[in-house]
Design a protein that fits this description.
By secondary structure, the chain is of the alpha+beta class. A hairpin with a 5-residue loop joins strand 9 and strand 10 (about 205-215). The relative contact order is 0.08.
Length: about 900
């Protein structure tokens, strides 16, 4: 019996069918070990020795794997064909060595780019050893990310209250978003005019030509800058005689795009399907791992994390066959197309993302797929097939026209592009954020040099230049790829971190930096400039690629990085918070103090009229305050919302949205201690007014009266459960938006809208929650289970709380320190915190002793009990203080 290790149970199930009874395929469920979030996990003093902790959820799975391996004839590591997959195989092997589960069995590593029977069986014929260079590249990346995050984030916490974290790639991606916002803020629009004439040939066919020259000088797009200039040109053209000077028709060809890589798939899925990169990768993972098609589980696409653009010869042959059969031989090029890119890393050896069987048309599998899966499969299929089709044949025509009036000589030009043969365009056109197809397929009438043209009208249109657009998730991925920042496996996670940390938000599918994101970026640019430089980050990525190719020693790369990085950290030790705030105030002036339309001083306090506004930092983050504090208590958020900086109610964190037509009460949006919330009316007769928090991702500036009333009316009835007939409700609770069916509560995912979620999606979330089953004991309620207490038994969980995350064991709750991330806190750390917390418990018996002694004192005089009680209370307080000190 051979034991085969893969990542996911879906993948294991499919491969088990292919290999038969002589193999046992077991899933590791992804990574099984990670660096614990504590000091010393990567130790530069010990030449970057790394300590790994086994994920508590993986303990049982690893025990099952070890048990199977002990009885097996061999071990085959068949995780994904990239650095992460290589790392998972390495981790599993290291754990098996620690458990002494290996008794001389042969160990091999196999990789396949697609989960099909042919690909899997072929891979089994070509085993190899674990690629040490790929593992080294993984170790280097993981160590760098740890060293930056673990050492830079505490600097942020100390010097910039309210900041959450910094990361090696995440911070550079955030800088891209913030730099673009800065460009928009300082952009000064410029007026310009376009002049065009509608002309007619002697045969009566009309077309449009634009002004491109005057009196021997070329006129560019922005050269006509005033209405007077435009009027003068228009007047001259209205009385001109027009004659064709030249006609030039050039044949051209447009070639198809290469098949998808990870980044181009994410970009196109965003533009055409509206999917976030994380959604795209989640759906692609399902298509890769296998879908039940015709009673057989089969992977529909090849591996979806790749920089490669080439395809296997058999896939190319299949694509050409499909093209000929479905579209005709005219669309099949004479020779197969071969795509290459400049190799950056080991993932270049992988194929592009393509269907595993190109003859499997989208319509053939649509019924077996969920709607989004079907759409993504169709997109991949279309791009793949189009990449092997014949080029489109075009004809680009340029007509230059002379216009003469009096002593002036004006020049006009008309252009048109005619598609003579559509080629691959019959199947696929790439989506673009700034797509402009005005000239495509615009046919000009037949003309010849010297031919006179009739004037049918002249128009002058006013325009203004526009600032660069904010990044969409797709265009940010594209820009990161162009700069060499990040790699296919990181794009989606980097964007997710920026949104989860609330450094950016999505507004109309565009990334807008939040104030805390602007502050973090400004801080890093001011005091750690090198580490958020695009070239520096790209150079580090290139070194990781060299490590994966066996060209660099990963320990030497870490030594070089750490030497300079620790020096930069050391320079901030004596930095005062006031210095930081002063630097950020200056750097963010355009953002927090934009110029006023009336030209008045934007820093002048609108409340007292004499104070100066500047950036301040408090317990709950940054804000704008007056220099006359405490006499003047004027404050406002960082950014001016909709220009209403002079509105005192808004400046102090309250904005009136309108009146509820049902109750007549005022609806407001307010800044509270724990975030922004909505409120209906005011407190009356001791009763609290109705309130609602904002769903994650909804910016306060985007909330209108209609949205506010909808949120305040939650929970809402979505519909009846198809199986039970009981209602399903959607609402917002302590842990965020949820759907409820009976006693089952299921949290909404990031892309779900609590106000718009439908019945089908709600039923799916409820079913998923029920399938997972309840947690063990109290600890599983509202938290993530870390494991069993090693000495006392019972589950230990990490939970979100009103005053921050905490760990729980039975009746003991211990708050997590600020430097401990609740997402990565380990069982050992939790036990340490719970033990320390439990050590302060002896104060309670002292209080009980005082209580039992009190009745006996009642037999004495009235004055005596007072002294006795005071003495007992003093003793109790002293006991409690001593116990508390001992617990520390």
């Amino acid at each position: 019996m051979q034991v085969v290790i893969v990542e996911s149970p879906a993948k294991a199930k499919t491969i088990n069918k292919y290999l038969g009874p002589d193999y046992e395929v077991i899933a590791s469920y992804g990574h099984v070990r990670d660096l614990p979030a504590k000091d010393g996990s990567v130790d530069p003093e010990q030449d970057f020795h790394m300590l790994w902790d086994v994920d508590p959820k993986s303990q049982k799975r690893l025990s099952d794997i070890a048990r199977a391996v002990r009885e097996a004839d061999g071990l085959i590591l068949a995780t994904d064909p990239d650095r992460e997959g290589e790392a998972i195989s390495w981790h599993v092997l290291e754990v098996l060595k620690e458990k002494k589960a290996l008794k001389g069995q042969p160990i091999s590593r196999v990789v396949f780019n697609a989960i099909t029977k042919q690909a899997v069986l072929e891979a089994m014929k070509h085993p190899r050893h674990i690629d040490d260079a790929l593992v080294d590249a993984y170790l280097a990346r993981r160590a760098l990310d740890y060293l930056v995050g673990f050492n830079l984030s505490p600097v942020l916490w100390r010097k910039l209250p309210g900041a959450r974290s910094a990361g090696r790639v995440q911070s550079v991606a955030l800088r891209l978003v913030c730099d673009r916002e800065r460009e928009i803020e300082v952009f000064v629009k410029r007026e310009y005019w376009s002049i065009a004439a509608t002309l007619a040939t002697p045969r009566g066919e009309t077309f449009e030509a634009r002004l491109v020259g005057a009196d021997g000088e070329k006129i560019g797009r922005l050269d006509v800058g005033t209405a007077d200039q435009a009027a003068a040109f228009r007047k001259a053209l209205e009385t001109s005689d027009y004659k064709v000077r030249s006609v030039e028709a050039k044949p051209g060809r447009r070639h198809p795009y290469p098949p998808f890589t990870t980044s181009t798939l994410q970009q196109e899925a965003s533009r055409k399907l509206g999917l976030a990169p994380a959604q795209t990768m989640r759906i692609a993972q399902r298509l890769y791992e296998g879908i039940d098609v015709g009673g057989e589980t089969v992977g529909l696409i090849t591996y979806m994390r790749t920089d490669g653009v080439d395809m296997a010869p058999e896939a190319i042959a299949s694509a050409r066959s499909v093209i000929g059969r479905e579209y005709g031989e005219r669309y099949v090029p004479a020779a197969p197309r071969k795509y290459t890119v400049k190799a950056k890393n080991a993932q270049e050896a992988h194929e592009a993302i393509r269907p595993t069987d190109i003859a499997r048309l989208p319509k053939d599998v649509a019924r077996q797929l969920e709607p989004e899966q079907a759409k993504l499969y169709e997109l991949i299929w279309l791009r793949t097939v189009a990449s092997q089709m014949e080029s489109a044949e075009l004809e680009r025509t340029t007509v230059d026209i002379d216009a003469k009036v009096d002593a002036r000589a004006l020049e006009l030009r008309a252009t048109g592009t005619v598609i003579k043969f559509d080629g691959f365009l019959t199947l696929y056109r790439e989506g673009r954020d700034d797509e402009d197809e005005d000239e495509e397929n615009r046919r000009l009438p037949a003309m010849s040099a010297g031919e006179s043209l009739a004037n049918k009208g002249v128009k002058a249109d006013q325009h203004f230049t526009e600032p660069p657009p904010r990044y969409s998730e797709a265009s940010l991925v594209k820009r990161m790829e162009e700069l060499g920042i990040g790699r296919p496996s990181t794009y989606a996670s980097v964007l997710a971190v920026l949104r989860d940390r609330e450094y950016v938000r999505l507004d109309k599918r565009r990334l807008v930096p939040e104030d805390k994101g602007r502050l973090v970026t400004a801080f890093l640019e001011s005091f750690f400039e090198r580490y958020v430089e695009y070239d520096f980050t790209a150079d580090l990525e290139a070194k990781l690629d060299q490590i994966s190719a066996g060209e660099l020693d990963f320990k030497q790369v870490l030594r070089d990085f750490w030497r300079d990085f620790t020096a930069a950290i050391g320079e901030t030790k004596d930095l005062r918070v006031s210095e930081v705030i002063s630097a950020l105030d200056e750097m963010l002036t355009a953002h927090i103090f934009p110029p006023k339309e009336d030209g008045s001083d934007p820093r002048l306090c609108p409340h007292c009229g004499t104070g100066r506004l500047s950036l301040k930092v408090g317990k709950f983050g940054a804000f704008i305050g007056c220099s006359n504090y405490p006499e003047c208590k004027y404050t406002r958020p960082l950014a001016v919302q909709n220009g209403d900086s002079d509105n005192p109610s808004e400046a102090n964190g309250t904005r009136v949205l309108g009146t509820d037509p049902a109750t007549g009460l005022e609806v407001t949006i307010r800044d509270g201690r724990f975030g922004t919330y909505l409120q209906l009316g005011e407190a009356k007769d001791g009763e609290k007014p109705k309130r609602s928090s904002l769903p994650k991702g909804l910016a306060p500036a985007d909330v209108d009266l209609e949205t506010a009333l909808a949120l305040l009316s939650l929970p809402r009835d979505i519909g009846r459960h198809p199986d039970t007939g009981e209602p399903i409700l959607a609402g917002i609770g302590k842990f965020g938006p949820y759907v409820q069916h009976g006693k089952t509560y299921a949290n909404l995912e990031a892309d779900d809208d609590v106000l718009a979620i439908g019945l089908n999606r709600a039923v799916a979330l409820i079913a998923d929650k029920q399938n997972k089953g309840p947690g063990r004991g109290r600890g599983a309620v509202g938290g993530r289970e870390l494991g069993e207490h090693p000495s006392l038994g019972g589950p230990i969980t990490v939970r979100p709380g009103r005053f921050g995350a905490y760990v729980n064991h039975g009746k003991v709750n211990a708050t997590l320190p600020k430097d401990v991330d609740p997402e990565t806190v380990t069982l050992d750390k939790a036990v340490e915190l719970i033990t320390a917390k439990a050590g302060s418990a002896p104060a309670k018996p002292a209080r009980r002793a005082a209580s039992t002694a009190k009745p006996a004192a009642k037999t004495a005089t009235k004055k005596a009990p007072t002294k006795a009680a005071a003495k007992t209370a003093t003793k109790s307080a002293a006991t409690k203080k001593a116990a508390g000190a001992k617990g520390k």
